[in-house]
Amino acid sequence: NALVFGLLLIVPASRGNTKEVNIPELGSLLGSVSKTEWTERPIYQFQGVPYATPPLGSLRFKNPTPAKPWKGTLNATDFRHICPQVSTEAELSELKEKIEKNETVEDCLHLNVYTPQIPGECQSLLPVMFYIHGGSFRVGSARNFLPDYLLEKDIVLVVTQYRLGPLGFLSLQTDDVPGNMGLQDQLLALKWTNKYISQFCGNPKLVTIFGQSAGAAAVTLFLTSPLVQPDLFQRVIVQSGSALCDWAVDLEPVKHARRVASLANCNEEDPQKLAECLRKCSPYDLLIAHNNFLSDVLISEMKAVKGSNGGNHAVIEEKGTNRFLTEEPVKSFIEGRFIKVPMMVGVTKHEGSFFLGNIFDLILKRKFNASDNLTEYLSNDFIKETLQFSGIDDTSGAITDIFQDKFFKSDEIGNFMAMVPGLIDICGVTLLKACTLQTARRNFNIQPTYLYSFNYKGQYTKFGYGEEVNYPFPGGVAHSNELIYLFPNSDGKLNLKDKAIAKLMVELWTNFAIHGKPTDVLKSSVLKWPTMKTSLGPYLRIEEQPSIQENFFLEYNITASEGLSAYMDESSSQSSLHTLYKSSYNISVIMIVLWIVNQFW
C-alpha cells in the first residue's frame, strides 16, 4: 500500500472553504467549496478520489480492483494525475519528465464528485449524472469537465477518469492482457458511485450515464456488456457516438497489439513473454509506439476506422470469465440483447469537419507534391479515398458513384473548396450520424427516446481542439461543440446568445436526468420535445430558435443543401477553444443507402 498512500496527502480536519465527508469502509475526504457560474450556488467538490487500486507494475493491463481504505483524511481539494496519453507536445514532455522523476503517472484511476448539498446534511437524495469523457479512448481527463453550469440544477455530477490508449485497451486475448481495461475502469467507477454516492447526497437509484464521442460509445457498450447490471443506471445520454460506429470496436486486436509491441521493441512470440516485455516498457515509450502505429497505418493504408484503431478501442474478448464484451455490439442491438432504458441521443450539425481536417492533413498535405495534378485527383480518386478513410471499401466504385451523384453538383467535382460541404456531410454521416441514429432506432420502440441535432453556431468552437490549424475551411458546428454549453471553458466567458443556449442545454440535460424527459411541461420554459414516433423522428433541432423536425435524414446532407457560402458565413466568426479532447455489419453503408433510396427513389 506504500505506493497508494505515498501519493495521498493526509490533511487535518476541515476548516474555512473546505468540507469533510466520511466514506464508509474507505475513510474521510476533505473537499473544497466553489460556486456555479450564473447564480453562484455553492458547489461542494471532491476531486481526485481514488476508486481503484493504482494499476502499477504487475497490475498494468489487468482489470481494476477496488480502492483500499486510507488512514486519516484524504485531501480531495485538487486534481491528481491525468491518465498517460499522447496529446500536446507540452503534455508529452511533462509526462516524460514525471517518469524520469519516478512519479507514478499510471496512478490515475480517480473520479471527481460535485454536489450542491452539504455532504452529511442532505435534505434529499438528488439525481446523479455520471459522465464519461471522449477523446478516441486516447486522450482526455476528468479535469476538463467542471460543474459550473450543470450544478445550477439539483443534480450530483460524477466525472471519472479511465486508462487510455494501449494502457487501457491493448489486447492479446489473454487473461494477462485481455483488453477493455479502460471500460472495466469505467464500470468500477460506476459501481463506486452506486455504492457511495449517497454520502454526497446523490440517489444511487436515479443515475444517468452520459458521454460524448468515445464516451458515447462507452455508454452504449455498457448497454451490451454482460458484466453491467441493469440497476446501475436508469437513463443514458448518447452524444455524437455509439458502439454501433465502425470505429468503436477493434476486430483484429492481437494483430494490432503485436504491431504496437514491435514498435516498442517487444517481439516475443509467446504471449506471456510479450506481456512481460510490455509491462517493462516506460508508459512514455509505449504511448509513442502506439502513436507511431496509428500514423503508419493512416499513411500507408489510408484507414481511420477498422484499420487503425488497434490498442485504443473496445475488443470482443474470446477468453476469460470476466469478459466485458462477448459479441459485436451491432449484433447485440439487432438481436435485442441490450439494456433498454430511456435515452437522449444526437449529433452536431457539422460532425464531419473534424474528420475532413484529418483527411486534409493526410491526403492533401502529405500525399502530394507540386507536380501532382490535384484537380484530376479530386475528380477521380478523392471521394473513394475519403470513403476508405471512413471505413467503406468500395472496390467496384458503385458506392463512390452514388455518393458523388447525391452529395455534389457536377460542376463542384475537382474543386476542393466547392466540394467541402459535401465532404463534410459524407464524413459526418459515415463516421457518426448514421450509427448514432441507428442506436436511437433500436431503442425508440421499447423505451422513450429523444433525438436531437445540435445546430447552434456560437462564438467558440472545438474545431482544431486547441491546436493551431490552418485549413482552408472552418469547422462550423463541429464535433464536440455542444460541450461548450454543458461545461465551462477556460478561454472566455459566453456572450449573451451563447449563455442562453447554455441555459437551454443545461435545462434539457438535467431535466432528462431528474424527470426522465428533457422538457417537463410544468416547469420548463422551452418548447415540448416529443419522443421518437418513427425511425426518423420527430427530433429537436437545437439552434437559436429551437424547432421540432420530423425527418432526421435532413441532417445527412444539410451542409451540401445549404451550400458553401452559407457554411463559410456561418463559421467565419468562431474562436477556437484550447481544451483538448482528442464490424461485419457496416451500419453506415446500410443507413446511407436507406437514406438515398428514401430521398431520391
CATH topology description of the largest domain:
Rossmann fold
Strand content: 5-15%
Global geometry:
globular
What would you call the quaternary organization?
A: single chain
Radius of gyration, taken over Cα atoms and rounded to an integer in Å:
23 Å
Please report the distance between the alpha carbons of the first and last residues.
67 Å
The major pleated sheet works out as: 14 strands, mixed
What would CATH call the class of the largest domain?
Alpha Beta
Into which percent range does the helicity of residues fall? Answer: 25-40%
Count, helices: 18
What's the CATH H-level superfamily name of the largest domain?
Alpha/Beta hydrolase fold, catalytic domain
CATH A-level architecture of the largest domain:
3-Layer(aba) Sandwich
Q: What structural category characterises the helix and strand content? A: alpha/beta
The domain count comes to 2
Describe this structure in words.
- This protein is 35% helix and 15% strand.
- It is α/β, with parallel strands linked by helices.
- The protein has two domains: 258 residues, Alpha/Beta hydrolase fold, catalytic domain (Rossmann fold); 247 residues, Alpha/Beta hydrolase fold, catalytic domain (Rossmann fold, 3-Layer(aba) Sandwich).
- Strands 1, 2, 3, 4, 5, 6, 7, 8, 9, 10, 13, 14, 16 and 17 form a 14-stranded mixed β-sheet that branches. The protein has a two-stranded parallel sheet with strand order 11-12. Strands 15-18 form a two-stranded parallel ribbon.
- β3 and β4 form a beta hairpin.
- The chain is globular, with a radius of gyration of 23 Å.
